[in-house]
Fold:
Amino acid sequence: MDIFIQQLINGLTLGSVYAVVALGYTMVYGIIQLINFAHGELVMIGAMVAFTLIGVLVPKGLNPMVIVLLATACAIPVCMLVGYAMERLAYRPLRRAPRLAPLITAIGVSIILQHLALLVWTRNNLAFPQVIKTQSYAIGGATITNVQIAIMLMSLVMMAGLALLVYRTRLGTAMRATAQNAQVAGLMGIDINRMIAATFVIGAALAAVAGVMVGSYYGIAHYQMGALLGLKAFSAAVLGGIGNLPGAMLGGLTLGVVEALGAGYIGDLTGDVFGSNYQDVFAFLVLIVVLVFRPSGLLGERVGDRA
Amino acid sequence: MRDLLRRNAAVRWSAVVLIALVLIALPFALSQAGTAWVRITNLAILFTLLALGLNIVVGFAGLLDLGYVAFYAVGAYAYALLASPHFGLHLPFWVILPIGAAVAALFGVLLGAPTLKLRGDYLAIVTLGFGEIVRIFLNNLSRPVNITNGPQGISQIDPFSIAGVSFAKTDTVMGAMVSGPMKYYWFLLALLVVVIAINLRLQNSRIGRAWEAVREDETAARAMGIDTTKIKLLAFAMGASFGGVAGGLFAAIQGFISPESFVLVESIMVVAMVVLGGMGNIWGVILGALLLSFVPEILRYTVEPLQKAAFGRMIVEPEVLRMLIFGFALVLVMLFRPAGLLPSAVRRRELAARGEGELAERKA
Amino acid sequence: MKSGKARGDNSAKALVTAEGIGKRFGGVQALTGVSFEIKEGEIYGLIGPNGAGKTTLFNVLTGIYAPDAGTFTFRGRDITGLKTHEIAAAGIARTFQNIRLFANLSALENVMIGRHVRTRAGVLGAVLRDRRTRAEEAAIQARAVELLEYVGIAPRANDAAGSLPYGDQRRLEIARALATDPTLLALDEPAAGMNASETIGLRKLLERVREDGIALLLIEHDMKLVMKVCDRVLVLDYGERIAEGAPSEVQKDAKVIEAYLGTPA
Structure:
């Protein structure tokens, strides 16, 4: 029981990050039925840019909070630009192509971004500069750090912000209309291309912040960190119901908790045949089980007609 | 030229004999540049075998499998476990290869079964997940019973041996030096010819047509009495079996395998070979595999000295350059030549139809 | 082609018997208690206003959905709930309202695929190309050519199916379905989108098929065609059977008139 609460906290923290990344996947899939394989790379770029900036700013002796916020504020436009570029250059020309083509292209974009990052930042891990003092709080027999609290709060803020944008603004309504039926939305005077671009750009912004969160949680960033995270976040999006925003949030949190609890208990459950090194398998198993038994996910998928 | 070949049987046969002689003599020529190039060629043929196997799944049946490397791994580990000091078994290769193919085929059915009802991109992701799961298990099945020896892999795998002639040693035959890799080359070449023949026959058969039907319109295929479940599983099994055989050969040639060799990027590489070469077209797939195997190696040998000469140092490692080019190749081919370098006849018709449709829409 | 039974033979045996077929989709009861009988060698029409459940009944019969209630018997065998490909193997072949050809394959290949269910060569046969497999392949090709001639599109054998004119595509779909050697050929709106002369050509083709002993089940909206070619019809409205019989009788049935035209003011 003692590890339960601890793993729950860890799971919710990680799950919050998954949720934010999953939102990006789910929005893009909802609007153009594309699995953007390169979305994980956007998270990575966000982390790398932010870390680099933090490393530059720390010697200046500014307030740690300011440094992190400044770094994040710079990472966001960079990721938005990359997101816009990938949509405009690689995906838009393939809007009418059979499903296979954009999928392959997305894989190609992912590989390109990974290796460009490798060129810029080398193979070495970028360490998160010790700028924030970790403080732990005891809660119910387990500990929670201020970083974890910050991550969960930040995720909540972003999810709320996104919900506000999507459900309460004209832009959001236009995006939802495009996702449900692009052809008709176009007839109503909505600029489909701009809506799709907006989806990518917003998702990229979320990815940037998620990158900072992941980086600060694990303390390091490197050019391959986006790949596995991206797959897991995609599993989370599918778990919640692809195209469904609340689903992505729920899926992310659920996956994080399942993974953490699984890693914590698997040794006991299997008599030590399988250890926590099998942790990564959970995300894949969840994905496979969901797709085979309940493909519409927990909250039901919301995918429109393919444009 | 093509007409000449088609009409005159004598010309056709002479061309075949000529190509065969060149291919058989090739390793002697390559050895002049170093045994490494024979090894590279062997790897290229292995990848061609993989690509042909995947072509059955992706090209014939239209099932996008992003986890194909799992079958390669299964075949390799089957070989390693049955012909190395690990379990103390030393079965001959002609016993193990069929076993490897069968085990891989079984995995093909197991991994394919849950995917049957999934649509295109979901199918891709699930197969990707399976590929990763297999790799993770291979990496961890060292406790409590040491099956795969974990990340350290299995070494000292027995090489092939035919009639007492070991494939690991170099012999001198009639004054010419015949190295181990060269012997493997001829075996691989013969195997490749057999695999190509099998693929060509499968394509033009009742089963091949059934796969095409399932790929074009599964509902209509079912209405015509095709058991789509069995047909899809058959595609998975057949494709996997080729991967299994290639895996066994890989284990024997390298003498050592570990989970590191069976990572996701290998699956993607094989998919790229099939897609870039021309999905469904056997010759296109072979071309794609050879290009993607040889070009990076050629790069490796030219890029390094070039950069040093131009910039005084290496700015971009060959490995990174290779991956960058690979990524760009994927994107550019999808943008400008999505049917691949040598599109299959079916794909050509599809593109022509879509081209007309778009033209009509633009006129309207 | 097979020899057939003469038209109007009232002693013809039942080919398909449906008892109390029901089907529900979520909140909608698409079919309720539908019972009918198709006799061997007859042309049986399925008509009714839009939304009456015709295509649903069609899809349930051909195994696309399983019924919630009721049974289907085909040649004395219970085929309720069998899968689509099993029903095709049993002898019921169908075409689709929206034409589902293998568009990028040639017309000939389309029909050859229709022979799949009656042939046997597997992987071993494909790879070894032994004498039996070669003979089977030759037979498949010959039969496919024969069927293309039968429906009248032989010159187009090597054209991509998707490139054929609309009328030829419908004929090709029929040829492909006939390749499965069915006892019942089920056609979903075969005359849709056809002009008057094309419809006459279709009628002649359907009559030929009947003469060769194959029963036909038609969903149709073209009433002239139905009246001319069907031996009997089943009328559905709101998922229920409201009449069954010869077209001339059903035409005069009060309930049928009401269903199509509404009650007089």
